[in-house]
Design brief:
By secondary structure, the protein is α/β, with parallel strands linked by helices. 37% of the residues lie in helices and 27% in strands.
Length: 250
């Protein structure tokens, strides 16, 4: 069964003669429980797709169905209980004057979740942080710990779909693998569906089954991670992308 279906998606910025398209004619489908990657060079439109799905970019056309809901101009409250986003910079996405406890409490309170106190403990355990982190502020945490808090916040309302926008690119290389392994474990434990944006093919190969390769706002092709590792791309652009990342994907 499909968790996400995107058809003929256009996304643009500006109006009239100043209108500039960031995404043109994109189609893809993600099955329930699947992890789907969006890759391409900076400015290719991959993060814009995530933001359009999340309702952060209002100027789009086409059709999107996510978690059984056909999306329109605004997202319903039910949408945000099923779909959450994890951003690139964990420090910028956390309020500097809020403790971890308050960050997670507010996230659950917005969705009317009960038994917040015990759920915070379980969330911290899920993301590999003990109770000693509960009342710390973001500046008291390392980059990897902050990203774990951001992931815990995304999981606070028990969603079925996570939109992951370069979730490891702001972290030290030594920490990236820890967060990727955490995401693998969480997906398995909670039956999550992922759409993940990355410029790093090695990262996508670790987490995803299929990837959509983007260039200048359009899909060049969709291929399996196995085909990516065997360099079985149809597009010359995809082959160039694979060849430039040969060390990271093998």
């Amino acid at each position: 069964m499909s968790a996400v279906t995107v058809s003929d998606l256009d996304v643009w910025f500006g109006a009239g003669a100043d209108r500039a398209y960031a995404v043109r004619g994109v189609d893809f489908e993600v099955a329930e429980g699947e992890s789907f990657g969006l890759v391409g060079e900076s400015g290719s439109g991959k993060s814009t797709i995530l933001r359009a799905i999340a309702g952060l970019v209002p100027t789009w056309s086409g059709a999107m169905t996510v978690a059984g809901e056909t999306l329109g101009a605004k997202r319903s409250k039910a949408f945000y209980s099923k779909v959450q986003m994890v951003f690139q910079d964990p420090y910028a996405s956390l309020h500097p004057r809020q403790t971890v406890d308050r960050v997670l409490s507010e996230a659950m309170g917005l969705h009317g979740i009960q038994d917040i106190d015990s759920r915070i403990g379980r969330l911290l355990d899920d993301v590999g942080l003990g109770p000693g982190f509960r009342f710390r502020y973001p500046h008291q945490l390392s980059g990897g710990q902050r990203q774990r808090v951001a992931i815990a916040r995304a999981l606070a309302c028990d969603p079925s779909i996570l939109l992951l926008d370069e979730p490891t690119s702001a972290l030290d290389v030594s920490v990236q693998a820890e967060i990727l392994n955490l995401l693998v474990d969480l997906r398995r434990a909670h039956g999550l569906t992922y759409i993940m944006v990355s410029h790093d093919l090695g990262v996508v190969g670790h987490l995803c089954e299929r990837i959509g390769v983007m260039k200048e706002g359009r899909f060049e092709e969709v291929l399996s991670v196995e085909a990516m590792r065997r360099f079985e791309a149809q597009s010359s652009y995809t082959r160039h992308l694979l060849e430039s990342s040969i060390n990271s994907i093998r």
